[in-house]
Design a protein that fits this description.
Layout (H helix, E strand, L loop, with lengths): L1 H21 L2 E4 L19 H5 L8 E5 L3 E3 L2 E3 L11 E6 L4 E6 L4 E4 L2 E12 L10 E6 L2 E11 L4 E6 L2 E6 L2 E3 L4 E5 L4 E7 L2 E3 L14 E6 L1 E7 L2 E3 L13 E6 L2 E7 L2 E3 L9 E6 L2 E2 L2 E3 L2 E3 L4 E7 L6 E7 L2 E3 L4 E7 L7 E7 L2 E4 L6 E5 L3 E6 L2 E4 L5 E2 L5 E3 L2 E3 L13 H8 L3 E2 L2 E2 L45 H4 L29
Parallel strand pairs: 1-2, 2-5, 3-6, 4-7, 5-8, 6-8, 7-9, 8-10, 9-11, 10-12, 10-13, 11-14, 12-15, 13-16, 14-17, 15-18, 16-19, 17-20, 18-21, 19-22, 20-23, 21-24, 21-25, 22-26, 23-27, 25-28, 26-29, 27-30, 28-31, 29-32, 30-33, 31-34, 32-35, 33-36, 34-37, 35-38
Antiparallel strand pairs: 39-40
């Protein structure tokens, strides 16, 4: 008898679960009424208040009639829970996207919910300087299994999209612009398993009320574990930060960030009235993280920065590989550690990159502090008037190419690779010089280069490939024996590494 009733109970539970996955579709329309049931286009609700009062179940949909604006905040809470195969969906129906207008506050808050999908919506605020007060476009807080796809957020003083203490979050094809602190941000409680893909963070100028810290970031993740940012563009951010201290960056992570991967992204023309305004950054308490296959160009400061501002967390075991920097302001790659940093700033591998500077700034600048075990290998440093490297004594250099516009070698006070190697031991392995001072002969010369903004087109940067007659082919050091970790298996263009008899120098690998 016991087995019979257990079987009946299991069957009833299963049937109940299956029945809820069909869900109910609720509608909002300017022609609706909050006294309606909301379950059809002819009985639609009118305002977000009616939707916020409703507890949604697995498989439910909340759809706004497209082409219209709905004023007021939409809130989903802990009593709104979907299932893996039946999430709760918030989106648009009819022609075009609907717009939620958060006015002077936030637009859409998902707090403590699970299995929620937000898609095909615009969320607007009254403007970072014209009424919005610390508002957030889409605020994901203390939730699990959350998705945002094809959303546009603008006009919020804090962030277009904020992730706070969540797990398993995917932000895809979002366009966050004209916000204050950041376009897309993770901050607050620790978040895990975060994915930001094919998003654009454009013209997020700064938070006019934030006078003590940076603002105007593109995409920034704080206090995260296991996060990926890929195929994203960040541009024209940070130009109106209301202070002159430490500043914003296009795409970066910081403050107890672990296992972050930033790849196939473009960050360009980011600015700052004060410091920073760079392309990419690992900053203060970042561990076990990688930047690879990215393109940084025409940013106010660093193309790629490795820095510790004095955080309470260690900074170690990070990598920059097969990335391009073109005409970034302070340097293509910057390295520094504040003397107040209480923890380790160590063990970073920088290899296979191509850095081009047409200004008086260096390709690489180790500008502050004493990093430990920072290694530069198989990089191509191409400058016009400035030095290839400044502060070289603070890192190890092996197998790199150094070349000035007129063929000059400039590393600190040295104008000769042989003299520098003899005096410092740099660029030598077992007594043999492994660095090169040679014309790289790659396609960029005379072409002016391409100023890409679309990450899907990174493969078209063929000017950065070595020509067949380049002396850098097979001239790099053997990364399989020199690195502390496992080397990358593909170059910037997707070709196998190594492809020929040895490793090439720079971002491209040739047979």
């Amino acid at each position: 008898m016991f087995l019979f009733w257990r079987t009946v109970i299991i069957a009833l539970v299963f049937a109940s679960t299956v029945s809820t996955t069909h869900g109910t579709t609720y509608y909002l329309s300017p022609s609706g009424s909050d006294t309606n049931q909301g379950t059809s286009t002819t009985t639609a609700w009118k305002t977000t208040s009616a939707a916020s009062r409703t507890a949604f179940r697995a498989g439910d949909q909340l759809l706004f009639e497209g082409g219209h604006t709905y004023r007021g905040r939409l809130e989903l809470g802990g009593d709104d829970a979907g299932l893996p195969d039946a999430p709760i969906v918030v989106g648009s129906y009819g022609k075009g996207r609907a717009t939620i207008d958060g006015g002077d506050g936030s637009g859409l808050i998902v707090d403590g919910s699970s299995w929620i999908t937000v898609r095909d919506l615009n969320v607007v605020g009254s403007g970072r300087k014209t009424g919005n007060d610390q508002g957030i476009g889409i605020h994901l807080a203390k939730g699990r299994h959350l998705r945002v796809d094809q959303a546009e957020t603008q006009g919020f003083q804090k962030a277009g999209i904020l992730i706070d203490g969540c797990s398993d979050v995917r932000i895809t094809r979002a366009y966050a612009h004209d916000n204050g602190f950041a376009g897309i941000c993770a901050d607050g409680g620790r978040s895990e398993d975060i994915y930001v893909g094919r998003c654009r963070a454009i013209n997020n100028p700064g938070d006019p009320t934030n006078l003590k810290n940076h603002s105007g970031n593109g995409i920034v993740l704080f206090n995260v574990s296991r996060a990926t940012i890929e195929y994203c563009e960040a541009a024209e951010n940070g130009w109106d930060m209301p202070r002159t201290g430490n500043g914003p960056v296009g795409i970066w992570c910081a403050s107890n960030a672990d296992r972050v991967l930033i790849q196939f992204c473009i960050s360009h023309h980011n600015k700052s009235p004060g410091l920073d305004g760079g392309g990419f950054d690992f900053d203060g308490g970042v561990t076990n993280s990688i930047m690879q296959y990215n393109y940084s160009h025409h940013n106010k400061s660093w193309g790629y920065l490795l820095y510790d501002y004095g955080s309470m967390w260690p900074f170690r075991n990070n990598t920059i590989r097969y990335c391009i920097s073109e005409d970034d302001g302070d340097a293509g790659i910057g390295v520094g550690v504040n003397e107040t940093a209480p923890n380790t700033f160590s063990d970073c591998e920088i290899y296979g990159n191509t850095i081009r500077s047409t200004a008086e700034t260096p390709c690489v600048s180790l500008f502050q502090g004493n990093p430990k075990d920072f290694h530069f290998r198989n990089n191509l440093f191409l400058s016009e008037t400035g030095p290839q490297v400044r502060g070289a004594s603070h890192a190890l250099f092996e197998g790199n190419c150094y070349w000035g516009k007129g063929g000059e070698f400039k590393v600190d006070d040295y104008s000769s690779l042989n003299a520098w190697s003899a005096a410092t031991g740099q660029e030598t392995i077992d007594g043999k010089i492994v660095g090169v001072h040679l014309d790289p002969r790659f396609g960029f010369e005379g072409s002016g280069g391409k100023r890409l903004t679309d990450p899907e087109q990174l493969h078209s940067l063929t000017d950065y490939r070595l020509r067949p007659d380049s002396p850098l082919i097979d001239k790099g050091v053997d990364l399989s024996t020199r690195l502390s970790g496992v080397p990358a298996t593909r170059d910037f263009f997707g070709r196998r590494v190594p492809l020929g008899a040895g490793y090439d120098i720079g971002v491209s690998e040739s047979p």
